[in-house]
Amino acid sequence: xxxxxxxxxxxxxxxxxxxxxxxxxxxxxxxxxxxxxxxxxxxxxxxxxxxxxxxxxxxxxxxxxxxxxxxxxxxxxxxxxxxxxxxxxxxxxxxxxxxxxxxxxxxxxxxxxxxxxxxxxxxxxxxxxxxxxxxxxxxxxxxxxxxxxxxxxxxxxxxxxxxxxx
Amino acid sequence: xxxxxxxxxxxxxxxxxxxxxxxxxxxxxxxxxxxxxxxxxxxxxxxxxxxxxxxxxxxxxxxxxxxxxxxxxxxxxxxxxxxxxxxxxxxxxxxxxxxxxxxxxxxxxxxxxxxxxxxxxxxxxxxxxxxxxxxxxxxxxxxxxxxxxxxxxxxxxxxxxxxxxxxxxxxxxxxxxxxxxxxxxxxxxxxxxxxxxxxxxxxxxxxxxxxxxxxxxxxxxxxxxxxxxxxxxxxxxxxxxxxxxxxxxxxxxxxxxxxxxxxxxxxxxxxxxxxxxxxxxxxxxxxxxxxxxxxxxxxxxxxxxxxxxxxxxxxxxxxxxxxxxxxxxxxxxxxxxxxxxxxxxxxxxxxxxxxxxxxxxxxxxxxxxxxx
Lengths: 166, 372
Known about the structure:
The structure holds 2 protein chains of 2 kinds. By secondary structure, chain A is of the alpha+beta class. Chain A has a single domain, classed as NADH:ubiquinone oxidoreductase Nqo5 subunit (Beta Polymerase, domain 2, 2-Layer Sandwich), CATH 3.30.460.80. Chain A has helices at 3-13, 36-45, 106-117; strands spanning 18-19, 28-31, 53-61, 68-75, 82-89, 95-97, 120-122, 150-151, 154-155, 159-160, 164-165. In chain A, strands 1-2-5-4-3 form a 5-stranded mixed beta sheet. Chain B starts with 7 loop residues before the first strand and ends with a helix. The mean pLDDT of chain B is 88. In chain B, 48% of the residues lie in helices and 14% in strands. In chain B, helix 4 (94-122) runs antiparallel to helix 11 and helix 4 runs antiparallel to helix 14. Chain B is globular and about 65 Å long. In chain B, the strands form 4 sheets. Chain B has a 3-stranded antiparallel beta sheet. At the A-B interface, strand 3 and helix 3 of A face helix 8, strand 8, strand 9, strand 10 and helix 12 of B.
């Protein structure tokens, strides 16, 4: 199926779930996060879609005023088609349901995105930091991130503009 | 496996342990000698390469990719430049394409040799490791001769490569392949068909195909479970569609399909296929200038791209977002070793502690890439 047909198939099943967003590419579809778990389960189990591979989950910060986004890259080994699902989150309270029980790799990918962006995946059974230490402060890949001064008595080096590393 | 009810004990393997192939801590909950749960603790090598990438220009990201998967830097470079070229929509000269394929496949052999040798080392066979490292050194010599570096090459650039091939590269490379091919037979005699080795690996740590796909396991680990999936064949990038090569899959030769032996054996068979590809590429290598198609200014249009390539460890994906400035808004690396490690808990429960190291070794993880 082409990305266009996949979009249609999803919007036929879930009314008002697909959001039109002109700034996205052809292979991308923006989806309303409210019904995400059901849509994801449908995408995996529907024989016409059967997305069995969750290739990647990428968190993206669109800038100071813009929302945070989670991008999911899906691929179907059976039908050889792919789609990229985009879900936007409110910056103040980023939240979306977890799909870790649908695709098991979602577990670690969501933990990584949580670690880096602070997006909360509700329903995740073990949502904690994965790459940073448990008591690290802040969400490193957000654009407005400011590193902490020190960590357990160790000074954290910072990049100073023009001067380079401190 | 047997049901034993005894006292639970927590055992830490690592962070400094030769069998974890880097700094990884496994928190193993055991019930007697039987493992009931494994919690991997990662991040000891975390340097947030993705944040660094946002503060440098597109070209300056390439050395960072070297340092992620330091055993197959050519392949890490390759994935990034392929994604960048797709984003910028530029055509690459024929010679560069061939050089890249030759380098990537040589590096695949080197990486697999280390994986196979270290795997033997993990479960007690010391000697084959020395044989394989001896031959890996010859590949590193070829790389050193080409670009001056033995491990971290920074060789593939967007639109080209950093150095053209040296004068008698083809001769040296063919000489190496002629020397190397008979060695594979020797490895098999030394390690693969050794009865002790088979006893330790066959039937151990079976990953069924659907579990492997659900966990995003890719590359030789996925093919070991019998799934015929290789990005080089199924989503061809660069010029891989021009070469004639097979995709070896596991067959449960000495035990169950998807066991540790199958994953080992797929790697061994892949080495032969890489030799085939290099021979074809060397034969057809065209002339030309390697800097010709290199763009003067690297400023991709606004947009994003996700592209995956086949690294020795599996599907290596790059998600790159551009806002039209000289440095990326976001670079995300989808690391194959990260996904392979995530299934360790499910695969290892029920096995003995010594089998956990056999399973971990068979997954061929590189911590630099997991932690990024």
